[in-house]
Amino acid sequence: MLSRKSFFVAIWLAGFSLASLCLVAQQIGDGPVIQKHLDQSDIEANRYSFEELFELGRQLFEARFNTFDGQGRPAATGDGNPTKRDPAGQPRFIRTSSPDSNSCAGCHNQPRSGGAGDIVANVFVLAQVLDPVTDSVSGEFSNSRNTLGMFGAGAIEMLAREMTRELHEQREKALEEATGGGVARRVPLITKGVSFGFLTARPDGSVDASEVEGVNEDLIIRPFHQKGAVVSIREFTNNAFNHHHGMQAMERFGVGRTGTDDFDEDGVSDELTVGDVTATTIFQAALAIPGQVIPNDAAVARAILRGERVFSRVACDSCHRPLMILEDPVYSEPNPFHPEGNLQVDEVENPYRFDLTEQGEMPRLERLPDGRALVRAFTDLKRHNLCDDELDHYCNERLSQ
């Protein structure tokens, strides 16, 4: 028989154990992966070091979102433009029309986070806009796309910005001369040695862009997506969050644009803040710059050099340009050419900036003595039509992007 003291000790222990079990029970089960959203004003005020912001962006890129975060979009399509659909009977997760992934890194993972993806991670572009959704991978409904690698994306975006500015300057100069002189001006559009055709400025202030090639008539270089359809990493990110994960960014799907803070009607509002998207963008922009490694084998090294000469001799480098010069290697966010639905320059007091030659993952851009940088990306950032009468191998897509 227990003594009076032992009895009360036993009662206390039992009560303590029950309380502990209740405390544990409260922790059982899922909760939101994003424990704290980022405030854009904190980023603009430099309350995070570059390393801290890069790490926060990496965490968002690798986060496995769930329904507590707002994963899924029962009443919204995956269209980049906020578009409603009938939520009745719509699946939350489907491989073809998407959402199709819980995490950016679920597909961007080769050779590591931020990279490309295996064929099993292919997406079916344009099927995400369908209502009702489709479970078919037929070319009637979509174009199959391999996952883009984001390494070096910051340098690519900055090249595109500089090329866009130069094309716009050439257009404005032609318009000034045409309106001032009363005679039409036909000018070549060339930036960083890449020709984008011709533009004719008329005395009445209008332009004829019928001879422009490889870029939209607005002369804004769009370096992302297989069809060159997206201006920036940020636009790419906003699109992908909704398309693949059913996670809506406030700057695209929030009250200011759509009139509601729960556009997809999944019970979660304000799923991604402006600061969240900024951090995710900075992470991708600051990923390592791809480079070439020459094996320590004389025969292989000689073969590589011979291949490089052949590459140039047969004019592969006329489009796959081995080297381009970036005048200013300082990456800034947001992009001044953002379309509506993405953070605008006039919406921030202090754009976030970092130097691509001094900050970010190694290896970084090569800096020249005069402060410029070398970008070895093997691209001209120009859209090329690979479907023609002479070679129809790439004329296999039924839907245009």
Model description:
The protein is α+β, with helices and mostly antiparallel strands. The protein is 30% helix and 10% strand. The protein is built from nine helices and ten strands. Helix 3 packs across helix 8. The longest helix has 29 residues, at 153-181. The protein is globular and about 65 Å long.
Topology overview:
Blueprint: H1 4-27, H2 40-44, H3 50-62, E1 123-125, E2 143-145, H4 153-181, E3 185-191, E4 194-201, E5 207-208, H5 233-245, H6 250-253, H7 255-258, H8 274-285, H9 298-313, E6 324-326, E7 330-333, E8 352-355, E9 366-367, E10 373-375
Antiparallel strand pairs: 1-2, 3-4, 4-5, 6-10, 7-8, 9-10
Short description:
The protein is α+β, with helices and mostly antiparallel strands and 401 residues long. It is built from nine helices and ten strands.
